[in-house]
Amino acid sequence: MRNPTPGGHRTSFSQHSFLKVQLSYAKDDELAREGACNQWAANILDNSVLTDLRTPAQFHAAAAVVQPHDLDGPLRVSSSLQQHVDWLGEDLRLGFDRLYLHNINREQDGFIEAFGEKVIPALTR
Predict the structure, then answer these.
(1) Is the CB of residue 113 less than 8 Å from the CB of residue 34?
(2) pLDDT tens profile 80-125
(3) Cα-flanking dihedrals φ and ψ of residue 99, to 5°?
(4) CA dihedral 84, 110, 78, 28 (to 10 degrees)
(5) Is the confidence at residue 2, as pLDDT, over 50?
(6) DSSP symbols for 43-106
(7) Rounded to two decimals, what is the model's pTM?
C-alpha cells in the first residue's frame, strides 16, 4: 500500500485506519533537523542504495552525505506546535482513526510534554 502522507505508514484493521507518523519536534528547527539527521539519515536513502548495504559501518558511511535539511521532505520536521497540529489535523481529515506519533529524535521529554499540553488537546476538541 502506498504511503498516503510524508512521514507516514498506513495500516488498516477491519474498518479502522491507523497512521504511524514519523516526525521530529524540538524547541527550535535546527535542533529538530539535527536530531532527525542524527537518528534517521540512513532511512531517507534511496531503496536502491539501502539494498546494497550490509553492515552498520556501510549504513553510517552512506548516511554521511545526508544533511539536516534533506529530511524536510521525507519527514515532518518542525519546532512549531501549530505546524504539527496542522499536519496531524490533515491526517485526521483524510480519514485516519488513530495516529501513532514517533518523534525520531532523542528529545523525548520535550516532545511528550509539548504534545501532551498543546498538540493532542488541539486535535481532540
Answers:
(1) no
(2) 999 999 999 999 999 999 999 999 999 999 999 999 999 999 999 7
(3) -115, 125
(4) 140
(5) no
(6) GGS-HHHHTT--SHHHHHHHHTT--GGGGGTTSEE-S-HHHHHHHHHHHHHTT-SEEEEEE-SS
(7) 0.81
